């Protein structure tokens, strides 16, 4: 189906569909670029792949000169496949594989270690190649609640990431690496927080500052992580964060020599994504109105834990309102309900609902197939043109790479005492 024109001049995609608004995305990218250019020019803006790994988006980031921040071998390989060079990748996370880690260390990737086996593997590489200069960063485990009470996003206050200075594991990692002749070139400070306040980043910088001076570190980078607030207007701005971080770190490092690495995700891509849905049916059950749509909460709140209300627009010719309408999804789960709306136009079949600001941690958690395939994705260009960048998958694409015994062979497989769905080669 082709996009249609409705009401305003803006093109509308057939529903359900996700739409990335490129001008909005550019606004956020430019803001972060400018904040760094003004307050820490010797810096790296990387994008956290996990937040939304739509291939179009990742390619667009690369074209804009933004680096990749990846946390698995698979994400690393995706970055390479999309044309990122190893020296424009930040490699984080505790699940790196040994061979990928070694290749990354040898090819100029910014590597932050986050597991003891990675420290051992790095040391082993240094022993194998004593002439090759090697450098890594270490993720620091620090207690956000100690500095900013109530900010931790985990149930207990403790984070499970990084090496703890308090338990001695950070110093043990430093000694192992130094003994192997590896430079400790960076600290990685990422922590999510509840309010994304500037104070959390000031605290991260403070922990880094104290480690730099107490451990005598000469760093090439401080990676302050992601977790920034990215609103269309108001504070904190990206510049507020960079300035606060700089104020603290300047006490122990020269920003002209040590790079600040940032790895934002949601603050760049949440706002620019819209989700378009249509009303399929309107049902009355006692005094309750249910609006059945071709959207699902699994599309835009896949973990069912969103607390903030959605921002939305209704496109309808309705002439009266209803006191309460429940907007329901297409799945068979009773709790697949997107929102209750009060005193809003009485929706009818064919009306459109547009949900805004749904780009962060939505598409990446969406199942490959639950009743429906994930929706098509469009971009809206600066010229307000809609371009399809990902089709909704087809059944034949879904079946690609799968192995199964065709219908007629079930009986033979059962007779051989094998499960009927064993792959033929097993
Ligand atoms: C190591 C790391 N960097 C960056 C991010 C991006 O965070 P956000 O999307 O909140 O900016 C995350 C997300 O949890 C992360 O774990």
UniProtKB/TrEMBL annotation:
<dbReference type="InterPro" id="IPR022644">
    <property type="entry name" value="De-COase2_N"/>
</dbReference>
<dbReference type="GO" id="GO:0008836">
    <property type="term" value="F:diaminopimelate decarboxylase activity"/>
</dbReference>
<keyword id="KW-0663">Pyridoxal phosphate</keyword>
<dbReference type="Pfam" id="PF02784">
    <property type="entry name" value="Orn_Arg_deC_N"/>
</dbReference>
<protein>
    <submittedName>
        <fullName>Diaminopimelate decarboxylase</fullName>
        <ecNumber>4.1.1.20</ecNumber>
    </submittedName>
</protein>
<dbReference type="InterPro" id="IPR009006">
    <property type="entry name" value="Ala_racemase/Decarboxylase_C"/>
</dbReference>
<feature type="domain" description="Orn/DAP/Arg decarboxylase 2 N-terminal">
    <location>
        <begin position="35"/>
        <end position="270"/>
    </location>
</feature>
<dbReference type="InterPro" id="IPR029066">
    <property type="entry name" value="PLP-binding_barrel"/>
</dbReference>
<keyword id="KW-0456">Lyase</keyword>
């Amino acid at each position: 189906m082709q996009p249609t024109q409705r009401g305003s001049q803006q093109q509308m995609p057939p529903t359900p569909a996700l739409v990335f608004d490129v001008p909005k995305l550019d606004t956020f990218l430019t803001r972060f670029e400018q904040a760094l250019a003004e307050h820490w020019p010797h810096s790296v803006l990387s994008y956290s792949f996990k937040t939304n790994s739509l291939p179009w988006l990742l390619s667009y980031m690369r074209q804009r000169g933004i680096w990749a921040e990846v946390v698995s071998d698979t994400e690393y390989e995706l970055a390479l496949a999309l044309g990122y060079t190893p020296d424009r990748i930040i490699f984080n996370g505790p699940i790196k594989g040994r061979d990928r880690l070694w290749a990354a260390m040898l090819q100029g990737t910014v590597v932050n270690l986050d597991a003891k086996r990675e420290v051992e593997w790095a040391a082993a590489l240094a022993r194998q190649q004593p002439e090759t200069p090697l450098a890594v960063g270490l993720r620091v485990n620090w207690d956000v609640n100690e500095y900013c009470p109530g900010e931790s996003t985990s149930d207990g206050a403790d984070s499970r990431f990084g090496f703890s200075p308090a338990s001695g594991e950070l110093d043990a990692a430093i000694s192992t690496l130094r003994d192997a002749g590896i430079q400790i070139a960076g600290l990685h400070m990422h922590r999510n927080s509840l309010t994304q306040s500037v104070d959390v980043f000031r605290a991260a910088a403070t922990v880094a500052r104290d480690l730099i001076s107490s451990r005598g570190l000469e760093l090439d980078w401080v990676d302050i992580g992601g977790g920034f607030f990215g609103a269309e207007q108001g504070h904190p701005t990206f510049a507020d964060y960079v300035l606060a971080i700089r104020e603290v770190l300047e006490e122990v490092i020269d920003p002209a020599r040590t790079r600040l690495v940032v790895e934002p995700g949601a603050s760049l891509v949440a706002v620019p994504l819209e989700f378009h849905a249509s009303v399929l049916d309107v049902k009355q059950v006692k005094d309750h109105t249910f609006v059945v749509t071709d959207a699902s909460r699994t599309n835009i709140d896949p973990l069912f834990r969103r607390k903030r209300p959605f921002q939305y627009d209704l496109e309808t010719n309705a002439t009266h309102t209803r006191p309460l309408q429940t907007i329901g999804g297409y799945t068979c789960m009773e709790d697949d309900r997107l929102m209750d709306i009060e005193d809003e136009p009485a929706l009818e079949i064919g009306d459109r609902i547009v949900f805004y600001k749904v780009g962060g941690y939505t598409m990446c958690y969406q199942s490959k197939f639950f009743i429906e395939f994930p929706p098509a994705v469009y971009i809206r260009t600066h010229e307000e043109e809609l371009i399809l960048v990902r089709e909704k998958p087809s059944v034949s694409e879904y079946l690609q790479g799968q192995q199964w015994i065709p219908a007629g062979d079930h009986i033979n497989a059962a007779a051989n005492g094998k499960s009927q769905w064993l792959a033929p080669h097993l």
